[in-house]
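ok so i was messing around last nite and threw this chain in just to see what happens. nothing serious, just curious
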Amino acid sequence: MRTAELLELYKQGNRDFRNQDLRGKSFVGQDLSGVNLSGSDLRGTDFTNAILQNVNFTGVRAGLLPAQKITILVASVLASLLLGGLAGWVDALVELEFHNSDGFGGIAPSISAKWIVLIILLVFGYVTQRHGMVSGFSTFTVALAVAVVGAFISTSFVSIAAAIVIAITVVAFIAVVTTIIVILSLTAALAINVNAGAIVLAAFTPTFAWVAVPSAGESAVILAIAVTLLSAYISWRTYLGDNRHTALQSIATGFATRNGTNFRGADLTSADFSQARLQGANFNDAIF
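result:
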């Protein structure tokens, strides 16, 4: 049924639109109070800011169309592959090995940048999963500043300290940004199903290790595993609606449901969603 046809019938007093194919239709801002849409296919339908009071959505099928799910999954996997390769390349480039048996030729104490970065990442992850992304990023900034100061205190040679600082800053920043984007990609994939999320992780971790291991050795594997586990945990908590991760949830959900059934800002007072399939539907700012 076409949008114009349904709206015209509604104006004429018809309220029974059961088992209709309304995929991809737009009812933005329309008043459809009291209609019966039970059993209808609403995948990709846009009800943004619509008035849907007392609407019967029993047994409807909402969310993303199959092609849209594939698009999101492909985009998420490509993002993970790209990020895994980028992070691995930076890891290999810097090599995370700024120490040797003599400690910079016996001039400065031995400093292992890879462990400093790993500690910073773990601190970031702990604070993020406890208090949210904003607190985690703030803590990351402080931890990075402490590491930078420590690098200069540990040696009187500015050039050596600067090299250490650059290594720590670049790798830590890439590691944290990679973690955030992988979390978003993974959360978006989980909106499709758990298997899609597993595919995203399976794309990231081997790519990171494959690019970085030849130069960075065991540190690449450790860092890849740390980012993977951290991303998986926070993504899962975000997907489950943990209120500590509302910012991440909003971004990921917006991406995952961008072309799905959209109830954003709709008035759903007394609407009935019994037995409805709603995975991938957007209810941001909706009124219940």
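not much to say yet. Confidence is low (pLDDT under 50) at residues 96-111.
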